[in-house]
Each structure stands twice: as structure tokens, then as C-alpha cells.
Amino acid sequence: MNALLRLMTWLSPSFPVGGFSYSHGLERAVEQGLVSDRASLTAWIDTILHHGAGRSDAALLLEAYAALNDASRLDKLVELADCLRPSAELALESSAQGTAFLNTVAAVWPDPWLEDWKARLRQQGRAPAYAVAVGVVAARCDIAAPDACAAFLHAFAANLVSAAVRLVPLGQTDGMKAVAALEPVALDCATAALGRPFADLGSATPVVDWCSLTHETQYTRLFRS
Question: Does 1 score more than 70 pLDDT?
């Protein structure tokens, strides 16, 4: 029960990582008419979870969880995660939230191990990807990897739905229907990640990447990505 409450706290919209300010390129997709209603939004996020950042972040989270007691392996993972973001905005989305997550957890639930990791990251001049930070903290708190992965993917999807409610715009009820429809998708993607070797890392969502890249020069923007 304590693990459930921790996950609910860490991945809730109220946890101070600034997730409300990122749309993962969705703002551009809405402007281009690629996402215009609940059905197209659900399909868009489903694709990201199965083939985009959801797929790669699930792998990063699970690898971080497994690499907890191997400093060299974890350092390499932090570096690799930096290389997986196809645009500056997506890199910021991940690193800024990862840093905020780690700093907040370390401040609220003090752990000398986390302080040592923060110091090592500073020495290396790197910020942890959001998924990596969540994986490490989940492992430190003995939260089951499958639960952490599924909860992370669900929170990611819910944050995109929240952005769409403001951007499309969608009604709150339609937004919740989209979240409900994405529940089994998040679970399916987490299960798939658990059965996939880490070497099978990657994504294939070029239109999402294009939306992020062109969002950088979009004239009117509400979101940072």
C-alpha cells in the first residue's frame, strides 16, 4: 500500500516537475489538424506509447531500475538517454522533469545514496532523463518495477490528455474518456517492455518528432515542447 501511495504522489499532476508546461509536440499536431478530437488524440498517444517516447522511456526506466547498484552501467545509461531525444525541446522536457523529480524526492524523502548520485551527475555535467530518475528512485524505495513502469506510462499519457483538453479544446469528460481508453495501452506497453531486451531500444514516430522540431519555431505557443 505504501508503494502505491508513493507512486500516486510522485506521478500526480501536483508533484513539482512542471509537467503541465510540456506537450511533447502535441501543440504543433493540433495546429496542423493532426489531432482534432478525442479519437485522434487517443490514437496519437497510443502511437507514442507503443512506438515513440513511451517505448524508449519504459526501457530506460527498467534499465535504470536494474542498474541501481552498478555505477558504471548507470552512468552510461544517463548518457545514452541524452542521445535519444530527437529535438532540443524533447531533451528539455525529459531532463528538466528528471532533475526536478530527483531533487524533490531527495528533499522530501532524504537518502544519502541519492545525494551521492546527484553529486556524480553534477561532476559529469549531466541531468537525468525523467524515466531514468523515476526508475532509480523506484528501485531505491523497493517499488516493483512493473508497477513503476505502468504508472509512469499512464502518467505520461494523462499529461498529454490534459494538454489536449486545453489545446483542441476537449471537454473534461472527453478527456477522461481518453485517459480511460489509454489505461490498457499503458499496461500493454509496460508488459511488452518487461519482456523485451534492452538492446531492442529505439522509437519510430517521425511525425511526432517533426511536430516537436517545428514547434520550436511555432509562432504562438502555450507549451515548452
Answer: no
